Target: Enoyl-CoA hydratase/isomerase family protein
Amino acid sequence: MTEAVLWAKTEDGVVTLTLNRPEARNALNTAMAEALLAGARRAVAEEAKLVLVRAHGPVFCAGADLKERKGMDEDQVRARRLKGFVAYEALERLPMPSIAVVEGAAVGSGGEIAAACDFVIATPAASFRTPEALWGTVGATQRLPRIIGKRLAKDMMFTGRSLSAAEAVQAGLVSRLVEVDALEETLAEIARVIAAAPASALRQAKRCIDEGVERDPRGALATELMAIEENLAEGAWRRTMAGFGKAAE
Model:
């Protein structure tokens, strides 16, 4: 049986989780949800510096595997969907940076996976669609509105509108639009910078951003002040400051 998600890790701590059901357009089934969760947990256990989420084939993820749901009763559908939610949250709560690399269509669950990562890098062939309501179900209603705003999210949900890669950049869903022939070089450079940065500072900055946007300004500032105290106590900043400017001398 083919692994639903492939795992790879470089010597400098970059983990790649690759959705690996191209014959099913990488539709999310139980095996893939479980494998994503396991991959995220393994990345934490092995103290990865960066996690990339990619996909085999021309489609990033075509959404939930509806073929798997045929014959399921309500309890089985509920259990499968909960596995998906747990997988998304595991990606979202990774302490290290995570990047979704989208080179094709991300539909429904595919959008959830991408949105659960810290940011998205896409090629021109990427697109994003959340047609759950048109399929008679509910999903992808929480992360997307927080990223692109509720009006555009409703337009996508109620009409099946697909965002092109360029539109996704304008909406704030995609951080970088990269041509295919420059993609690997771009990813390698991003990975180099992140892998060389102090992991604890990146972890603290990520936590401050994620928690801060959910709080009022005073609460958000308190989160940052607590991170600063943690940073000072660790002392790693001293080594960074000691080396600052020496490379240019």
The first strand starts at residue 5 and ends at 9.
